[in-house]
């Protein structure tokens, strides 16, 4: 994608407007900061010492809110994933100021120029983060992965761990990772293929600051190392989901499949982007063939993600099996408690059931309330991210008014025709009179207004 030159600082103004419009939280209230500072000094007293095990973290190089550290060992033909998760619950008192603020926020919100954290930085980027150096309290989930990639939760414990190396996706060397890191990821991928899972992680569309008022609208594809790391979280979250279902409790991530209308729209999007989707091939099968390093296929992967129904949270319901269509399995969120409120409660429930204890009442009471809270937080986060991309698109196209672009009509609804530009990963609207879905359409850019984050096209 071309760089965005922004001499009028439209992005800065626009990002400030986005924060105001969507009420993105700013700094934390004084009572929350004071409670977090006190909690950061809390010594761990219910944790076994596992500092002799070599745990490492694997994240973007700039990350400081580290949720997960891992170690892997062999057990016969099985692999044991020891997944250390930040013990956020140790630092957050139920009903206290930090907890109340986390319920108001729900998730960490990311913007091109910074983030609005779920917890104060003294916890999320300090005492609770699994940073290298000093020991940190964690909850270790031990997940058994057999030769076929099937997973089972073998145990969970509170422990003190030491991060031996803060590794980055784009620079980690194989020798720095556990020897069976790649093998574990391959087993999980093979199991997904047998289940017919459609979990294909698209690249993130992001606004990248280049300095001196310049930005770039780009796709950030997942590195191979990042994809393998995602398999660790998948293994843990699936094993945790099964354990919670067995004990008739929990909170699960669920998602349905794209409907027929969405599939038709995706067919037209594929045509617009110039990607070859054979007519006889299902979406699930085709999705697994896509290469995120190809810009056109990356754009189509993003379109697939946007086409399906949004994922949601569901508490355990007797007689109803929670199902995530992209995973083709039951699935929970437990591995990012520094960034998602719900994970803290899933971690606590899993710690209890794995050790034969009753799930704390505060956790069981939270499960029915969390779906609505997380839906609101997820919606706001998605709106903020979409608004940031819309802003970048208008800044990028500002000054190109009057130019013509090739597009394809992907679908038509009460708001007009939705079009996909052929030369850029931009979706827009145009007058629908006399056009049909799938039709090639030449459009002219009428206006690109960064202040309103609005693109207007007319049929050329």
Automatic annotation (TrEMBL):
This is RNB domain-containing ribonuclease. SMART domains: RNB. The lineage of its organism: Bacteria, Pseudomonadati, Pseudomonadota, Alphaproteobacteria, Sphingomonadales. SUPFAM superfamilies: Nucleic acid-binding proteins (SSF50249). It comes from Sphingomonas cremea. GO terms for molecular function: 3'-5'-RNA exonuclease activity; RNA binding. GO terms for biological process: mRNA catabolic process. Residues 47-356 form the RNB domain. GO terms for cellular component: P-body.
């Amino acid at each position: 994608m071309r760089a965005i030159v922004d001499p009028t600082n439209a992005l800065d103004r626009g990002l400030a407007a986005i924060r105001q419009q969507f009420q993105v939280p700013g700094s934390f209230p004084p009572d929350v900061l004071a409670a977090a500072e006190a909690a950061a000094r809390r010594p761990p007293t219910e944790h076994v010492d596992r500092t002799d095990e070599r745990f490492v973290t694997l994240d973007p190089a700039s990350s400081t809110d580290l949720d997960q550290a891992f170690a892997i060992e062999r057990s016969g033909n099985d692999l044991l994933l020891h997944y250390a998760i930040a013990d956020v619950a140790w630092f957050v008192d139920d009903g206290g100021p930090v907890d109340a603020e986390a319920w108001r926020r729900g998730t960490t919100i990311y913007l091109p120029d910074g983030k609005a954290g779920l917890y104060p930085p003294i916890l999320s980027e300090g005492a609770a983060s699994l940073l290298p150096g000093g020991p940190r309290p964690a909850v270790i989930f031990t997940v058994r992965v057999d030769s076929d990639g099937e997973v089972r939760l073998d145990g969970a414990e509170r422990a003190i761990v030491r991060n031996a190396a803060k590794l980055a996706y784009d620079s980690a060397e194989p020798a720095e990772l556990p020897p069976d890191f790649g093998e574990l990821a391959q087993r999980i991928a093979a199991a997904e293929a047998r289940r017919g899972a459609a979990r294909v992680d698209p690249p993130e569309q992001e606004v990248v600051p280049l300095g001196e008022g310049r930005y770039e609208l780009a796709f950030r594809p997942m590195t191979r190392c990042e994809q393998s790391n995602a398999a660790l979280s998948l293994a843990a979250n699936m094993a945790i989901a099964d354990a919670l279902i067995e004990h008739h409790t929990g909170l699960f991530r669920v998602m349905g499949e794209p409907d027929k209308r969405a599939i038709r729209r995706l067919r037209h999007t594929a045509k617009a982007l110039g990607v070859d989707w054979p007519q006889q091939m299902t979406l699930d099968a085709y999705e697994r063939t896509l290469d995120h390093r190809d810009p056109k296929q990356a754009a189509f992967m993003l379109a697939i993600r946007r086409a399906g129904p949004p994922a949601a949270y569901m508490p355990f319901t007797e007689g109803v099996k929670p199902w995530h269509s992209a995973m083709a399995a039951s699935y929970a969120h437990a591995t990012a408690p520094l960034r998602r409120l719900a994970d803290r409660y899933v971690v606590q429930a899993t710690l209890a059931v794995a050790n034969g204890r009753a799930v704390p009442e505060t956790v069981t009471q939270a499960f029915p309330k969390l779906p609505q809270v997380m839906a609101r937080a997820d919606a706001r986060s998605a709106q903020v991210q979409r608004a940031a991309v819309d802003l970048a698109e208008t800044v990028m196209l500002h000054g190109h008014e009057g130019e013509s672009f090739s597009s394809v009509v992907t679908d038509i609804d009460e708001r007009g025709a939705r079009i996909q530009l052929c030369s850029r990963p931009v979706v827009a609207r145009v007058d629908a009179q006399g056009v049909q879905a799938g039709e090639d359409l030449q459009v002219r850019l009428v206006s690109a207004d960064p202040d309103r984050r609005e693109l207007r096209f007319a049929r050329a």
